[in-house]
Amino acid sequence: MRDPQFLADLAFLTDMTQHLNELNLKLQGRNHNIANLYGNVNGFRNKLKLFKTSLQQDDFPFFPSCKEHYLEMKNFEECNFLDHLKYMDEIIVEFERRFADFEKIESDIALFTQPLTIAVETVNIDYQLELCDLQSDPFYKGRTETGIDFFKLLAERFPKLTNFGQKMGSMMGSTYLCESAYSTMKFIKSKYRSSLTDTSLKHALRLATTNINVDIDRIVKDKLTKQ
């Protein structure tokens, strides 16, 4: 713990882990689609380049632990973080590799997020004719809905764009929904529910994970009325 270089490594690890944790939190939660994931990841990739530049200049506005260690050591022993640039390069390359598939659907994400302003010639030819009509319709120009909520408005007049919106909206933005569903299922399948069947588990899990407000009292009342 008295080795300046070890402390520099520890400070760098602390700050980078904090940045990665912040990104991880942004990718969690409900109602995240592929466009949200794309925006958060691309934003972090830009941040990585900014982080690298700050380390090259011995300037640490984004690395508080590194800054504290640098100020403590510069009057006693030489301290720099240039050795950590190679780690920044490795992180940048790794993000480029892991999210390379984004480049394949970049135009689809652009259409999903800005259907009224995107250049028609840049999108898939299957959607160009409907997109021309959509962008010329004054009814849709004044709409404030975005994402899947906007594409729900197109169901009757623009079937191809509607299918496109449903496809993009169904892409999971993260594994959070899967992980939370497993946690919910574990809670439901307790030792106190000995009569739980596969069918009832499916219904209970679906009810516990849905975003739709279910009026249980009304459903029970209707059932009792029919009987």
Folded structure, characterized:
The structure is a single chain. The protein is mostly helical and 227 residues long. It has twelve helices and no strands. The protein has three domains: 95 residues, no CATH class; 65 residues; 51 residues, no CATH class. It is flat. It comes from Henosepilachna vigintioctopunctata. This is General transcription factor II-I repeat domain-containing protein 2.
Task: Chart the SSEs and their pairings.
Blueprint: H1 4-26, H2 34-56, H3 64-73, H4 85-98, H5 106-113, H6 125-136, H7 138-141, H8 147-151, H9 159-170, H10 176-188, H11 198-209, H12 216-226
List its salient traits.
single chain, 227 residues, mainly alpha, 3 domains, General transcription factor II-I repeat domain-containing protein 2
Beta-strand segment tally: 0
Q: Could you list the spans in which at least 5 consecutive residues all have pLDDT below 50?
A: none
Describe the global form: flat
What is the assembly state of the chains in this entry?
Answer: single chain
Order of helices and strands: HHHHHHHHHHHH
Q: Ends: how far apart?
A: 76 Å
Give a quick summary of the entry.
This protein is an all-alpha fold and 227 residues long. It has helices at 4-26, 34-56, 64-73, 85-98, 106-113, 125-136, 138-141, 147-151, 159-170, 176-188, 198-209, 216-226.
